[in-house]
Amino acid sequence: MADTFITKPMAIENRSMEIIAPHLEGLNLTDEEKIICSRIIHASGDVGYAPIIKIHDKFIAAAKKVLADGANIFTDVEMVRRGINMKTFQKFGGEIFCKIADVEARELSLSEGITRAMAAMRIFGKRLDGQIIAIGNAPTALFEVLRLAREENIKPAAIIGVPVGFVGAAESKTQLALQNDIPFLTVRGTKGGSSIAVAAVNAILYMLDSSRGANEK
Hints:
This protein has ten helices and six strands; from the N terminus they run ααβαβααβααβαβαβα. It has helices at residues 9-20, 31-44, 59-68, 78-83, 86-89, 103-112, 116-124, 139-152, 169-178, 194-208; strands at residues 53-55, 73-75, 96-97, 132-135, 158-161, 184-187. The protein is globular, with a radius of gyration of 17 Å. Residues 213-217 have low confidence and may be disordered.
């Protein structure tokens, strides 16, 4: 029997988006919000994400503007940093930072009795002002970013906060969604993860530059 599966990367992606599209109908999404939601669902293979993605009404415009102007991205884990499409991102001049494995973060986490992800965000501090935060794994990192905004007047341009898990994840994302000072993208509940954060970042990048090659996936 002849193979009938699709082998061209962009054809696979396009067909995936066609399958996803009906699940976004009736959710009151803008065209750009549909693009982001589609990429999140595509990355997860889970149409159950459709109704739980929450996008602040200023998030897309804010993220597009600062990324186009060369903003940096600060992440909680290496999986997020490595998943972002560097070929596209580097066209705009920014850098991606992750300190989860740094000695400085390890020492602060031990001295303060906090997680390394939380320590990393504390070390970044004022460098987060006006930049993009992408958190896909650690709720404590998101709690710390929100504390920095609330107590130290540090204001990222936009936050992608989608930590995954059963301890603190849902609560951190609820706290993110309840504030209105910083544009954000999140998902309600325990779902999330590095691939979701990456999908959201890449969706914004592809809005800014659609010149991906046919074999890029």
